[in-house]
Amino acid sequence: MPGSTWKGRNYNFDIADPSKPVLTFRSRKPSHFIFEIDSYDKLESALTAANLDVFETPQFAAGGVEWALRIYPNGNKARGGDQHVSLYLTRKKDPVNRPSEVTVTIKFFIQDQLSGEYLVIEDLGERSFDVRDAEWGIPKAIKTDDFKLPSNGFLVNHKCTFGAEVYITSGEPKYSQISVVKNIPKRIYDVTFDLTPPRSEPLESETFTTRFDGEDYTWKLVLYRDGYEEGSSTHHSLYMKLLDKNKLSGGKSMLVNFNLRILNNVKGDYEHGRNAVLDWYNYNKDTAGYPTFMPSGYLFSRRYKYVEDNNASVQVTFNSVFLSHLL
Questions:
Q1: Residue 139 and residue 29 share a domain
Q2: Is 240 exposed, middle or buried (0-12, 13-18, 19+ CB in 10 A)?
Q3: What confidence score (pLDDT) does residue 1 get?
């Protein structure tokens, strides 16, 4: 397949033309605005009688800004939309505050009533709206004949549904920087579970402490004997929890690559969970691990003797650690 050229550089993948809308289908409803019309033919007749070529919907809010959808049933002929349905977005003036300029990306929607899905008509470019910008949209959103053909499902028994999504893209981005923690301790941490207490969820281990980049972090393991998340009722689940998550406040995060292995007292070796976990820890997420650590029943099996004298021993190995913070 031939590639694409952009700004003098050649690529072996295709770059979509940002001057043309992209058409796709999806089942999820539009996030910001849905407008149902139960008598499209009467709406067209009313526009004709009033010598108008465009209909404006009630206002809706997106990104803290008020908008309205404009529908040209027979096309915005001034913009080359003849024989098409034209869809436009207009920003409404704030009667109290002077609107500042905003840059947005826009998606228009038309529901296929036969499948329940939505035709998504997406503009690949970004558009700026200020107090002077009346509207922006797609003159050739869909051919009028294609829209009105009942077998296509867009206009059925005079009913149709339009929608819109508007995402604000202007504003200052948040920058984050990630760096690897050097000289990760090669120590393997042996952590013990006391399985004497009555069966309860979850069961917590003793704590242990690591030191990364001059900072101490305290952890413990959490065992769900009846499983958790996708391991519920089918597996024993094992996780590692960070106790002092307050050290990861202010936009700080930690990406941890680790292994958890349990001692098989028959083999005298640690096993299960051999695939390493790579997951984030932050102020809002303090736990990561293995929801399907081992199949249900294995933990107390006499064949493997993972539990001996009501204790189970787990090895914790840190392979690599990355720290991220907002700039």
A1: yes
A2: buried
A3: 46
Here the tokens at position 125 are 């470019």
User: pLDDT digit string (tens) for 182-217?
Assistant: 888 888 999 999 887 666 678 999 999 999 988 999
Angle at 245 between CA 243 and CA 247, to 5 degrees: 120
Tokens standing for 300?
């107390």
Cα Rg of the chain, angstroms: 29
Contacts of 231 (CB under 8 A, 6+ apart): 224, 237, 290, 291, 292, 293
Q: Kind of pairing, strands 118-122 and 102-111?
A: antiparallel
> Largest alpha-carbon pair distance within the chain?
89
51 backbone dihedrals φ, ψ, rounded to 5°: 60, 45
Which of 186, 195, 324 is closest to 254 using CA atoms? 324
Q: Which domain holds residue 18?
A: 4-168
Please check whether residues 109 and 143 belong to one and the same domain: yes
Note whether 216 and 132 are same-domain residues: no
First to last CA, the chain: 41
C-alpha 301/C-alpha 32 separation (Å) is 54
